[in-house]
Structures are given as C-alpha cells and as structure tokens.
Amino acid sequence: MGDLFVYNTLVGDKVKFEPVSAGNVGIYVCGPTVYSEVHLGNCRTFVSFDVVVRYLRFLGYNVRYVRNITDAGHLENDSDFGEDKISKKAKLEQLEPMEIVQKYTLNFHSVMSQFNTLPPSIEPTATGHIVEQIEMVKSILENGHAYVENGSVYFDVAKYNSDGNNYGHLSRRDIEEMSAGSRDLQGQQEKRNPVDFALWKNASEEHIMKWPSPWGIGFPGWHLECSAMGAKYLGDHFDIHGGGMDLKFPHHECEIAQCVSAHKKNPVNYWMHTNMLTLNGKRMSKSTGNTLLPEDIFSGENAILNKAFSPMVVRFFMLQAHYRSILDFSSEALSASEKGFNKLMQANLLLQKAIYSKATLDKQLETKVVDLINGCYKHMNDDFNTPLTIATLFELVAIINTLNSTNSFGTLSEKVFNSLQNTMNGFIIDVLGLDSVQINNKNDKSEKLIELMLSLRAEAKNNKDYALSDKIRDDLTKIGVVIKDGKDGTTFTLT
User: Fold this and answer.
1) Considering only CA atoms, which of 50, 123, 42, 35 is closest in space to residue 82?
2) R_g (Cα) of the chain, nearest Å
3) Is 229 exposed, middle or buried (0-12, 13-18, 19+ CB in 10 A)?
4) CA–CA separation, 40 vs 181, rounded Å?
5) 476: which of 232, 237, 275, 481 fits an S-S bond (Cβ 3.0–4.6 Å)?
6) What would the pLDDT profile of 294-315 be if each residue is shown by its tens digit?
7) What is the CATH number of domain 279-434?
8) Residue 76 above 50 pLDDT?
9) Cα–Cα distance measured from residue 382 to residue 396, given in angstroms and rounded to the nearest whole number
10) Whether the Cβ atoms of residue 460 and residue 469 lie closer than 8 Å to each other
11) Tell me, which fold does domain 5-274 have in CATH?
C-alpha cells in the first residue's frame, strides 16, 4: 500500500520510514509527570501516538512501545533549580511522595483507558531505574562531557560541541545566542555555562526523594531518565522518539546530547512532536482558568462547554486535526464532531451487518470505492494524516448509505465488498481506535427506542391515525432518523 513517510523534526521534513530492524519498530514516548491530573495537552499527545502505534501494527510491524512514568527528578521550572513537583505536591496534600505518584498514575491510566489507548509494551518509572541513570552519568563523565560541582553533575555543552557535536540541532538553536540570552538564576552559579544542564543534583537535607550516588546523596536530572530507559528497552539506536512540541527544547535536545556522549551514536532516527491545544481560541492556562480536565468534558461539569461529551467523541475530535497542527476545543467544534462520529459509526454498523447478494456490477462505482480504499492508506502513509483519512472514510460513508437504502451492495464485486468492510472496520476500530463496544452498547439502546417508536407508528397507521403516524415520522426526522417504508417493512438510518 505504498511507503510510509514521517515528519522528522531533526531534519525538518517528511522522510521515508525505514526501521532499524526490518519488520520491527521501537518507539519511545515521554510519559506524564504524575503530580496532578493528566491534562488535555498530554491526552492529545498520547492519543496521537496511540494512532501511530496502531497504524504501524496495522501495517504488520512488530512494535515495542515504551512510555515512561516520571515519578522523580522533575523540578518545578523543568530546569535545574526549584522544588521537585512531586515532593511539593506531597507536602501540600500531606502525603508520602509515592502516594502522590500512585494516586495520579491511577488517574492517568483511567483517563487513557477511557480514551481507548493501547497500553504501552513497557511502562518504566524513573525511580525504578536510578542505577541505570547513575551508570549513564558515569559514562558521560568518562567521555569528558560532564563535570562535578558540590555533589552535582552537569553536562558540559561547550565541550560537547567542541568535540564535533551539535547541541541545538533538534530545536534549531544557536549555542552562543542561548548563552548570551541566559539570565543568572538562583542556584545556577555552579555551572560553567548557563546552558549546561544537570545530570545529577545534590539533595538538600529537606529534599524528600533522594538516593546515594558516587557524587553524594541526590537525585537524577529530568532529562536523564528518558535517555537511560530508552536505551535499556530499545537499545542505543532506535526508530521513533515522540512527545509534545514543548519537550523539543530543552528535554529532547538534552536527551540527544546525553545519548551521543554516553553511547557515541545518535539515539533516534525519527523525532516526532505533537502541537499544542487551545480552548475557545486561547491557550490553555490554569492561571487564567481557561483550562479543562478530561473528566470535566466527560461529565459536563464545567462552565466552558455547553454539554458533556463522551471520550470517544473527544478522541474522534482530536483526530480530525493533524497531530502537528494546533487544535482548538470549543462546544461548537465538539458538537459537530459528535454528529460526524455518530454518522461514521452508524454507517460502519450498517456495512458490517449487510448481507451480500450479487447484482449487476457497477464498474464506475467499484473503481471509485477501490480508489477511496487506497486513499485511506495513502493519507495515513503521509505522516499519519488522520483528518484526510477521516474525510476519505466519510466519502465511503455516503456510498454505504446509498447502497444500504437501495439494498444494492451487490453492485460491487464480492471481493471489493469484502475489502470495503475490512477497510472501514480496520481503519475505524484498529487504526483510529474508536471503541466499537461502547458504540454498540449505546446504539443498541438507541435502536431499541427507535424501533419502539416505529412500532407505535405502525400501530397508528393500522388504526388509520395518519396524523399521529406522520408526526412520529417527522419528529424522528428532526433528530436525524430517516425512515424508509418498503414492501418488506420500515427501515431507518441515522444522519
């Protein structure tokens, strides 16, 4: 079905995907820091990479998907000073840090389950890999790209670049401009250069989460954990590393430098980054109150949206925008997605229930259906373009509804009919990850209510109460239920 092309942030262009090991793909996605409820920006990233993993498996690749849990070493300003976010939250809630970790890890898993994301193959934690991180720091020190100051270890960016490397390549930043533009910050005097970053931080007495190391009691730098765990489970050089665009610098830039220094090779072939979310046209921000948690959307208990929306509708909404584009949440956009989602799922249900009966072949229609089926692969092969894939599926929906209303699926050859069934179900369920079980349960109830209304309409017609019969038909039409009376009885479709 053609070659797969992926937008690689490292080169700033779409390039042909060629795995390190034929038939196998290793992918690492930076997971959440579990000190609070998972937010929608995180959710979009994980849903996007869930589709990446799903499509790679759909194409037949054996995928090892690693997504970490950051449960230590992530400082308040995402840099090298301040208080550990988890420790700070533990003090506020008067809990042990690992109680905070457990509480919000469970929240994260619950939300991801509602979004129907596949669990990762491996979900390592930072605290479970302290030994590996210490060993990596040792290697970086041995290779001359780090230095020790007062029990802390810092990566020496200038020395790394002077040895022929390029810190700043991923984010297109110039090291001299970064150094000139840096401010003197509290606790940064130990650094030789403002752009140097911590590999290991010396812990004060009041710091809660800390471990022994060759340099004293301390804790690992945030950037170090992903480098160590990625290398352990995917090797020194693997296929895809993903995360939100906010991680491109400094997190992923630092990861590359650490791995090149420790292993003397570039760690990843393809760097992928998802774009940000906005809410009603404005950047999401806790400080302004312009923010929503997933549970706020699912429950409808918020002052921003006009109703509740199911996890599958929200997932579908996210996939209607390309993962590299900005996505804006609003009631109007979600409501439109809900209608489209129901239409898509209803058409697929009709198609999967359809019984094939051969008729006169419509060659022109068959050619169009085959082209649209191929189009689904073409768009997904173009950097996982879900919005164009969904648009193509809706072109197939129009054909399916027409064929269903005229009972003429047999105007396609049986081979193409089977391909249509497999493509619709495969892309909707397996690739886009829209939960058929939830939908079937919901639609079963809806269909029973509609069938009850149709039985009341039939009774009204038998009693020659045509006014009531017409009213039921018209009211159902208003809510998107199209009725068709035929010689074999009354059927309906949802629009």
Assistant:
1) 35
2) 27
3) buried
4) 32
5) 481
6) 999 999 998 889 899 999 999 9
7) 1.10.730.10
8) no
9) 20
10) yes
11) Rossmann fold (3.40.50)
